[in-house]
Amino acid sequence: MAYRHQPVMSAELKYWLGFNLVKGIGPAKLQALRDYYGALDAAWQATPLQLEKIGFDQRAINSLLEARRTLDLDAELARVEKRGLRLLTWDSPEYPPYLREVPNSPPLLYMWGNLEEGDRLAVAVVGTRRLTVYGRQVTRDLVTGLVMNGVTIVSGLALGIDAVAHKTALELNGRTIAVLGSGLDSIYPSENRQMAQQIAQGNGALLSEYGLGVQPDAKNFPPRNRVISGLSLGTIVIEAGERSGALITANFALEQGREVFAVPGNITSPSSKGTNRLIQQGAKLVSSVDDVLDELNLKLVVEQTVAQLALPETAEEAALMAHLSGQPIHIDELCRITSLPAGLVSSTLTMMELKGMIRQIGGMNYTLREPDPTYKIND
């Protein structure tokens, strides 16, 4: 089910946004402000003397004073709302729980789309932009196996392995999360804008810690990578050169106590030098999706989930379940074939969606949320 979210225009939310826009105030300084003031609206009005007292350097103090002088926080919040985005803070119930656990997690995330409780079962799939035919096929096989087992795919929307991972998940009507190194109004690369829209409109979410107007920049991508790994139970590196950004993601995963997986490759291929080295250093070698599912104990979770989903609690749920499958079906068609009143069908479908039994994929079309725990990728 989709997480319930607080109103975008909540009283303190604009101050979370304000501090996110102040250069030099990251997670540690923001936590210090919260510890000292208790609330961010009070912290926003801090005097230079008070800021010095809690350890702020002059550069951070000047940045905050300048932001207070030039920013209209209500207008900034309205810009976010106009774009159809939501803001997730450390205090938001829908803030990704595994990301919240990692050190220096982003205090604020911009989100386009929706997160679901099932997105807790997420695996990052990353790799080079210069993928080979082998890398493309392995990515498709592994992502197919993960999606068919109810796993959400996390990646960075880049060309290459990232794009194939997202695209495969979308083709299978699976869940996928894209993390950007730019503002959500500056989708990068431009070739993937349509894919980004498709993700946001029903198959997942785009996330960024960067404000509107922030352009993609090399310095933004390592922090982006820590979010990718932080959202995930484990990270699979499929192809990576010796200096690939995917290796940065793997390092963050290790620092965060998450599993790292690597796909072996041809020892003469530049695209496999990074992954082969990861295996030498102790990363779990991946030859099939079972290697990932077993290591993360996901098979048991999926089996329990399927068992729960197979038990409708009311006669109306049972009637609707009998006509739901992996193929989309419109609510009007469900009303016709079950002969149930439209209002009852609508309310029952809403409850089933909240329970995680089904998924609405847009346009009042529904599918059964029923992963297959026996699926294995082709050898």
From the structure above, extract its key features.
single chain; 379 residues; alpha/beta; Rossmann fold; Arc Repressor Mutant, subunit A; nine-stranded mixed beta sheet; three-stranded antiparallel beta sheet; 18 helices; 12 strands; globular; disordered N terminus
Task: Describe the structure in your own words.
By secondary structure, the protein is α/β, with parallel strands linked by helices. Helices cover 45% and strands 13% of the residues. It is built from 18 helices and twelve strands. It has helices at 13-20, 27-37, 40-44, 48-53, 58-70, 73-82, 97-100, 133-148, 161-171, 193-203, 221-230, 245-255, 273-280, 289-295, 298-309, 315-321, 331-338, 342-354; strands at residues 86-89, 108-113, 122-126, 152-155, 176-179, 204-208, 234-237, 259-262, 284-285, 329-330, 358-362, 365-368. It has a nine-stranded mixed β-sheet with strand order 1-2-6-5-4-3-7-8-9, with helices on both faces.
Question: Briefly, what is this?
Answer:
The protein has helices spanning about 15-20, 25-35, 40-45, 50-55, 60-70, 75-80, 95-100, 135-150, 160-170, 195-205, 220-230, 245-255, 275-280, 290-295, 300-310, 315-320, 330-340, 340-355; strands at about 85-90, 110-115, 120-125, 150-155, 175-180, 205-210, 235, 260, 285, 330, 360, 365-370. The chain has about 375 residues and is α/β, with parallel strands linked by helices.
